[in-house]
Amino acid sequence: MNNLIKKELKYAFIIPLKDMRYLSSLDHSTLNDMITRIDEHRKLDNRPTLSTNQYIVCNQDEPYAESVWQIILQGERDKIFPSDRDYLNDPEIDSILKQYPCPCCGGDALIEKGYTTIPQINDKANVFHVICSACGLQSDFVPSIRKAVELWCERV
User: How many domains does the chain contain in total?
Assistant: First the structure.
C-alpha cells in the first residue's frame, strides 16, 4: 500500500508518565539532555520544540482506535483538499460568473462538482470547475470552488 498516510512506527518510543518512576535519576537527566538537544536542533530548523508540538496517542487495541484513525484520515484529506463553504447556488458566486460569460458563445457559466481519486490516501475528494451551460466549454477541475471561479474569470 503506497499511501501518504499509513499506520506506522513513526517515533522511537513513548514513555507513559506513570512509568517514569522506573527510571533512575541518571536516566531522567539523560532523557532531559536528549530532549534539550533535539529541541535545539528543531529550533534551528524552524520547527516547534517537543514541548510545544503536542501529540495525541491512541493504543491500537482500544475499541475506539479505528474511529480515531478515520478522523485522522479525514483531517489529512482536508489538508490536501481544503473544504470551502458550499458555493453551489451561492448568489455572490452567481453574480461574479454572470460578469464572465462563455468567451466562445456568451452562454452562462455554472459551477459543476466532480470527484477525483487521491492515491496517496486511497480515497476520493471533491473537485470543481466552471462549465458553459450552452456549449460545454469548461475550466480545469480544481480542489475548491473559489479557485475554479478564479480560473474562469482570469482566462484569456
Answer: 2
Its domain, for residue 132, covers 91-153
The answer to whether position 12 is within a domain reads no
10 within some domain? no
What is residue 134's DSSP assignment? T
Please state whether 46 falls in left (phi above 0), alpha (psi between -120 and 50) or beta. Answer: left
Kindly write down the DSSP assignment for every residue of 33-48, as one continuous string.
Answer: HHHHHHHHHHHHTT--
Answer with the one of 57, 81, 107 that is the final residue of a domain. Answer: 57
H-only helix segments in the chain: 25-44, 65-80, 91-98, 145-153
In angstroms, the CA 156 to CA 117 distance is 29
pTM, entire model: 0.43
* pLDDT tens sequence across 97-144: 888 888 889 888 888 887 777 666 566 777 888 988 888 888 888 888
CB 128, CB 142: distance < 8 Å: yes
| Shared-domain flag, residues 96 and 146 | yes
Alpha carbons 43 and 104: distance in angstroms, whole number: 54
